[in-house]
Amino acid sequence: MFGMTNSGTRARIEALEAISANIMIADDALNIIYMNGAVRNLLKDAESDLKKELPAFEFSKLIGSNIDVFHKNPSHQRNMLAGLQKTHKATIRVGIHAFDLIVTPLKRGSKNEGFVVEWANARERLQNLDFQNQIEAISRVQAVIEFSPDGTVLTANDNFLNALGYTIDEIRGRHHSMFVAPDYAASPQYQEFWTALRSGKFQVDEFLRLGKNGRKVVINASYNPIFDEKGNVAKVVKFATDVTERVHAVNTIGDGLNKLASGNLAFRIEQPFGADFESLRNNFNDAVTQLADALGSVSRATGQIDAGSREISRSAQDLSKRTEQQAASLEETAAALDEITVNVKNASARAEEARHAAATANSSAVHSGTVVADAMSAMARIEQSSNQISSIIGVIDEIAFQTNLLALNAGVEAARAGEAGKGFAVVAQEVRELAQRSAQAAKEIKDLISKSSEEVKSGVTLVSETGEALRTIQGNILTVNQHMEAIANASREQATGLSEVNTAVNQMDQMTQQNAAMVEESTAASAALSRETDSLRQLVSRFELGATFAQTGAGPASWSSRSDRAPAEQPRSVSRPAVMTRGNTALKTDDWQEF
Prior knowledge:
- The protein is of the alpha+beta class.
- Helix content is 61%, strand content 14%.
- The protein is built from 12 helices and 11 strands.
- Helix 11 runs antiparallel to helix 12.
- The two termini are 27 Å apart.
């Protein structure tokens, strides 16, 4: 193979099978002609994942296949391999797998006869590279120090040295106990702390540590046991953050809040914080100032509210009395209006009855006028009949006169007749006497008729005057009827109006009663407000607002910080599984490119 004898080729192949490196050989056409056992195991284990990304990949058919089965874009790799003159290193990623490749061209003179590819699983190398980068990132922002399992300092980064004020030469080779108080270093708790670390249990807590010259430093730290390949603790690495300023700020703010809870608003935090927390101190002082100002304003307003509530209470009491009086007056007015309404209704009823009586009288007057008119007509007819009788009597009187004249003439003629006319003279005499008697009777009748005519005329005159009087009475009764009807209508309207007024007064009475109840409630509320104002004044008086707000109490409190108050020395053990780490002899990353 490649110019070697068959015996030499077999010997080399046997040697390739024996080594642990993953070897694959391809000819100049990039066809795979050999894979040793190590690379076969590597690719077989990854076959199922590789097929997801490379559908043409099939492990059983790799020998004789082209290396294009490993690439989605084979032309790029072909162009690169065609000009390859020396060993090339690359990393390829297929799905979840990453492989480091070392490609070496097999040359005979200037001719390229094939390629040898050494495969390596790059996952651990990349993972360790990622871990290394993470550790470097952590080291840039955190204080890191390493100890042997017995607590001897091995090394520390600049962040740790700057936090505690030491140089590396001042701490290397010394025990961890140099960073804690002597009494704690001699305590059983401290021994248990390192015993737990040597057993593989990490420790996480806030710790008080002593820096150079005894300066107190508070750190938020985790002590992490690091295991060797046998699972033994090889060293302890501590990652820490200096939280001294934060603890100082928290403790100081805590003291301030305690004083605030006790009602002292006259103090201020005078000692400055670190740059990161100075704004917190300023904000706290401003908040206390504003709260004191607000409570001072509340105190002043409380007095004003108290005076106002008392005035309101007095006014409400006066209003209550006046409302009660008004309610009593309205009640009496309502009762009087009820009586007036009843009287007006009665008057309206009487006016209605009078109107009916006037209407009846009017009807009677009209009927009397009619009767008088009929009587006048009858009297006129009687007068006419008397005139006619008088004319007849005149005729009878003329007849009697003529008869008397004729009887006289007959007597004269009978006298002239002598004896022969005596009998006719007697008759004529009797006729004459009858005529005289008729004339006398006619005269008497005429006199009676004359008197009767005069009486009739007088009766007609009286009836006529009676008719005029009755017509005048009828007109007056009509006028009275109209007035009575107007009075009746006015009485009805007045009764209706008084009923509405009565209803309105009753409603006003009810509203006044309700207003009186509301005034009583307002009075009670004013009294309650006054009591609550007294309570509020007592509550405000519990706060010390300082001289600025004209309150009795101490001035700004001078108070010490809590920076000297260390947290509990005994660390808290956190039950977490120990993290095992292993070394890795992955390929170097120098001059690697994507392949």
